[in-house]
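Per reviewer request, we include the raw input and output of the structure prediction for the construct analysed in the revised manuscript.
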Amino acid sequence: MTASVTNRREFLSFLGRDMLLAGVGGTTAHEMGLVPGLASAWADGNTRLSFGSLEPLAALLAETAPDKILRVVVPLIHQGTELRQIVAAAALANARACGGEDYVGFHTFMALAPALQMSRELPSERKPLPILKVLHRNSRCLEERGGSSAGDTLTLVAATDGVKSSAVALQDAVRGRDLKAAEQVFAGLSAGSPESAWNDLLPTVHDGLDVHRTVLAHRAWDMLTLVGPEHANTLLRQSVHYCWKNEEYAAKRFAPLRELLPKLFDQHGLAGKKRGTREADDTWLESTFRALTTLAPAEAAGLVAAALAEGFSPNAITEAIALAANELVLRDEGRPPQWAQPNKPVGSVHGDSIGVHASDAANAWRYIAAASSDRNCFASLILSAYHVAMDYHESTRSVRAWSPRPTAEVLKSVTSEDPKTLLVELDGAIREKNQELVCGVVRRYCDLGHSHRPVLDLLLGYATSEDGALHAEKYYRTTTDELARSRKQHQARQLVGLARVTASEFGTPAPGYEEACGLLKVPMRDLVGRS
């Protein structure tokens, strides 16, 4: 453990300063000397990132072994440390250690904010469970990569005089696979506002398409609401590292896309155009959603570029893309034998499945577009359409020939109208891992007009208790977010998709979950299926 914090009592002594930091804000805190500046760190010859008032907690979380982490954190919660504070510190510790380069590491980072959002839907005594689950995963990840002895992926990088800092310079450095240059450029970009650094980063993110590249950028930006703008460089640099590491593949795989995007901007006159406010009627939404499931990627991108030129709102476009992504969850024939793994067997649709990945990516693109400049908003929406169409059109499997769930035969077999009876049937089908039946039960439940909340409570329990192959938290958040945004006639689709993935992931309990329940003195399950 570092000298900054050696025990729980010493950590608690820092809480007053942390509360002050939260009250005065990041800029004022720097001026007051509450957050160590880069200059003093460099003067001491220390290039390790330090997170000011969050550093003691970040160090504690990073350097506590997996078999001890829950026994350290639960007393802190009981003593008043807020869950959001724990999540913020864990995110910073993860970013410093893994830097967007470690597969399990960045998946864990991306699960932290969704876990906090899940906690807000649980009874007070159970709220810590999703967060403790992810903290345990984070601790395991850091230990497996060698702990503090492995060194940090992210260290202090000072802006260098004479280095031109611009979006183009950053993109050129990453395309040139020059991490040092990219780091120096981004250090200069980060000297301005977080918003300007974010928008200068996005053209580099736009250089390739994969779910991790997209969701990591979204979650890094979203996490700033918890950690504060003074840590923007740390969180957003994860994307610089991810894109740099991914560049050799992306340059080959997405060379045509890099040429297509500027052509679409020119063809549809999008440069300098403001985002529109035109909303979509049901007919437009249905036709656009269906088109995205059949068009080639370049054609799908062109379809959205044309819609943007016609003034359709980003919300209208993202609604259609989200439906196309959800359709992949409903159609998925399941993992083929050659892709089977111990916790992802043949027929499973959880984890890195085509539908879960597509849905998480579409939801992330929605938020990236909403949080960026008009130019980056348009590019993000065009790429989002290309992304989902790519999943349909370029898969090695016959995705477009698969039929969506529930089938008519299964739906006909579910006859009950009583919501409590249907919930019991749903819980039983999940435990049997019967994906087909859970789809029929949830569709029947929704068609009868029953409240969604009891089903969500049931599925939330399993999203917390089961491992989910690194995706349970993100996908639960994706689905509930899109459910809340969907038109009434499409809401059942999202709930059916979540239920199907839940049944698929059942049977592999999350490491640390049982211990967390014991420490919190809560039963493993206190309602039907809820944890």
